[in-house]
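Sample entry copied in:
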Amino acid sequence: MKNPLKFIQEVKQEAFRVTWPTGKETVQGSLMVVAMAIVAAIFFLLIDQIFKSLLDIILKVSI
């Protein structure tokens, strides 16, 4: 990187070539992320409850 001014100009040119998502695409992507996070949270909650129940059964049997 010998010429910082040339580097900045090239960065600016590349920024104009980027295809930015539309507002609708951004909202749709955000909603998908939130939905998948909720699904994952429910899944892990169910798995945790199953393991808790199994552990309670094991501990009661051993006593």
Remarks:
- The two ends are 71 Å apart (CA to CA).
- Residues 23-62 form the longest helix (40 residues).
- The CA atoms of residues 54 and 60 lie 10 Å apart.
- The helical segments are 4-17, 23-62.
